[in-house]
């Protein structure tokens, strides 16, 4: 993440994160535009975008991250057939 060199000191950092998982109405979420409190991600193959959204939510009043939905088209991408 950060380059380590001889001047880098180890620090103890405590990070407290509250994660709330809820069953939500996906139709209701898909009817809303992305914004400050709602973000759609197709998958986590490149987690940087999801991490940026989580940090933005943490720095404001929170939000909802929906994984498995195409950003532009809102097409459901993540599903499994049994």
- As for the number of domains, it is 1
Strands across the major sheet, in which order? 1-2
User: What is the count of DSSP helices, taking H or I runs of 4+ residues?
Assistant: 2
**Would you identify the regions where 5 or more consecutive residues have pLDDT less than 50?**
none
Task: Give the N-terminus to C-terminus distance in angstroms.
Answer: 38 Å
Can you give keywords for this protein?
single chain, 82 residues, 21% helix, 10% strand
Overview in brief:
With 82 residues, the protein is an alpha+beta fold.
Structure characterization notes:
With 82 residues, the chain is of the alpha+beta class. It is built from 2 helices and 2 strands; from the N terminus they run αβαβ. It has helices spanning 26-30, 48-59; strands spanning 38-41, 64-67. It has a two-stranded parallel sheet. The longest helix is centred in the middle third of the chain and has 12 residues, at 48-59. The chain is globular and about 45 Å long.
